[in-house]
Amino acid sequence: MKSASGWSVQVVGQPQHIEDPDEMSAVFDHIPDPWAPGLRPLVVRILASQVTGRRFERR
Length: 59
Known about the structure:
This protein has one domain (about 5-59). It contains one helix and two strands, in the order βαβ.
């Protein structure tokens, strides 16, 4: 079995809907391609007040 790793992350904060096309384009220019297929018509910024998470590994 091939090893793999990933993260589970929970962010708590105030959401802000990004509607400006230039800002949306800038966001997509700086993130990797998602693993899941499909369109991403909604972009939300989260002003985080708390971030928690953990790493998972399969060996």
